[in-house]
Structure formats: C-alpha cells, structure tokens
From TrEMBL:
This is Heme chaperone HemW. SMART domains: Elp3 (SM00729). InterPro entries: Aldolase_TIM (IPR013785), Coproporphyrinogen-III_oxidase (IPR034505), Elp3/MiaA/NifB-like_rSAM (IPR006638), HemW-like (IPR004559), rSAM (IPR007197), rSAM_sf (IPR058240). The gene is hemW. Residues 14-260 form the Radical SAM core domain. Keywords: 4Fe-4S, Chaperone, Cytoplasm, Heme, Iron, Iron-sulfur, Metal-binding, S-adenosyl-L-methionine. It is found in: Cytoplasm. It comes from the Bacteria. The lineage of its organism: Bacteria, Bacillati, Actinomycetota, Actinomycetes, Kitasatosporales. It comes from Streptomyces javensis. Belongs to the anaerobic coproporphyrinogen-III oxidase family. HemW subfamily.
Amino acid sequence: MPEDGALPATALAGAERRPLGFYLHVPYCATRCGYCDFNTYTASELRGSGGVLASRDNYAEQVVEEVRLARKVLGDDPRAVETVFVGGGTPTLLAAADLGRMLGAIRDEFGLAEGAEVTTEANPESVDPRYLAELREAGFNRISFGMQSARQHVLKVLDRTHTPGRPEACVAEARAAGFGHVNLDLIYGTPGESDADWRASLEAALGAGPDHVSAYALIVEEGTQLARRIRRGEVPMTDDDVHADRYLIAEETLSAAGFVWYEVSNWATSPAGRCRHNELYWRGADWWGAGPGAHSHVGGVRWWNVKHPGAYAQALGEGRSPGAGRELLSAEERRVERILLELRLAEGCPLELLRPAGAAAAARALEDGLLEPEPYGRGQAVLTLRGRLLADAVVRDLVD
C-alpha cells in the first residue's frame, strides 16, 4: 500500500459512471457485547495502548483528514457522494457536532448528490430528542437503531445494555426530529430465545413504525465472549433448523405488515425505504471507508485500513495513508463476487455471469424450487423463499 494511498489508473477509469459512497467507522463502544467481533474498543481497552492518539475527543478531526486524503487520491473525480453511512461501534458516543463535522468534510470535499442518503447507526441508550434534532440539523436523514430483541433475557445473553421499549421510543423521537427513514436491527437465534420471544420482538419493532427492518441470524464468532460461554456449556448453541424457522416467522410477519424483502436479511415498506448505501456494496459500486479497520473499494481495487485507532491516528498525523494493504481484483474474482452478492437481492443476478457448471447448477436449483421460474426465463437467478433459507448453498453451487 503506497504511503500516499495512490490508486492505479485502471481503478479510476470510468469512475464517473459509477456511484460513490462513504462509510465512516466509529470504533468506540461503552461496553463490549458478548457476540460482537467488530473492530471496536471500549475506553478500558484503549487505555495504555495508544489511548492518547485514539481519544474520542479528536477522532472527528482524524476522519476529516482521511476524507481530505480521499479527495487527493481520487483527484478530479467529478462525482458527488450519493450515500454516507456512519457505523461502528457506537457512532452516537461522539457528540452530534462531531458526526456533523465528519459529514461536513465530505460535503466540502466532494459535495453531496441531490437526495443523498445520510445514515448513522445508534445505540438506543446513547441518544435523546435533542441529540437526534442536532443530527437532523447536521444533514442526517436516515438512522438505524440496534434493537436486537424486545425480551430482557435475550438482551442479557447478548450483553446488550438498553432496556426493552427504548428502541421503539427512539423511532418516535427520530420521526419527531424529522428523520424520513428509520431502521431497526433485529437478531434471531440467540440461545434461550423462543419462537414466542422472536414473534414478540417482531411485533414490537413493527409497532414502533420504522420503514425498514433488518433481521440477522446470530453468528457465534470464535474469540467472542458468547463463543466461550457456549464452549463452557453455560448457554446452548442454536441450530440451523431453528434459524430457518425464525426466518420464516420474520418473512411471514413482516410481509403481513406491508414490508417487502429486497435482500435476504432486509425488508422495507417501499423502494424509497431501502438502504441505498448497502446496495452500493451489494452491486459492487465504489465506496471509501474511513476509520480504523474500514474497507474501501474503487474500480476493482479493494483496500483496508490499520485496525487500531492509535495506529490509525499516527499514520494520519504523519501525513501517511492509514491503509494496511490492498488487492487488485481480477475479472474472475469480480465475477464471483457479483454472484455472491447479487444473488442475495430480490432482483437476483444475471444468468450470463455463470460458467457452464454454474448454469447447470442453476437449472437444478430451478427444478428444486430454489429459484423463481419467471425471472429465470428472463435470464435472472432469483431466490424463492426456500432458496433464501439455503442461499449460501445455492451460491456455492452457482459459482462453480
């Protein structure tokens, strides 16, 4: 990775025809959730380990510096930014003014496209009506709250600190502040969760009135506190059949409430409610990821930043790119990634992307009821509901 972050000319060729988004990573959390393996840090984890450089107090300025670096690297790129997504961690541990400064740097350096989608994630306990009003004034128009569950005993297993009912209240507060689009994130398959618990969480989420719901199966990652608890036999592991049942419950409940799936784990009440930023990822567009451990992709070049906030701050302070490494994707790798990502979308992926073995697998998937017949006849591979339950297996077959 060159110290100035320069990209090969091939990455910038034709850039004006591709959408551009920004992901801003905020790596701070008040506490560590037992299931989380994201690149996040609590105050105690940073103390004595680059803690001064990695302070939350000066973090916004570091991200601003990387946005300015992005402007230099992308040069005379004429594109205005279409989506901005601030994720974490808990972005709302920073002052709303800090998030506004980060967004302001993108506006100043690149400009925001008309109708740009500007999202931040938020922990329900880290915001209040005044904070939300400040975010809206700064230019944020979409917000995603981590709800996970409506049941206290489920939240406890996940080590979530918010109280049941607070995420639903946040939706009302966000609407009052002027947010046009609100998402609630849910997790199913937590050890000790019942079908009734999951139904209650879905009903509570719907009752709050979001226009977008994300529902993810709990993945127990090695190295997390939850993985250690399961290994010690303190909590049971949830099996794949339970995950499948919970997904079917989600589809049934959300569909009945007027939500439509547009990606395997995401539902919206209208096309306008979709997360356009995530659609950039799924469609292989260009995005710049700023912050420790953030990943970026521009024109077939993918790179990632150093993970530790102290190392990130030091690189920028020395006028260097915080990039830790990068790879130039081959045409074959990009083909495979398109299948992996686009098959998860309601629009599916073009059958013309498939090699002969993959095409034969698609024909078998059609016979087995895993692909929709009508889109298949138009040259698109689109998953049926049963296909969504087996999406990973279908993808493996289609990529040869």
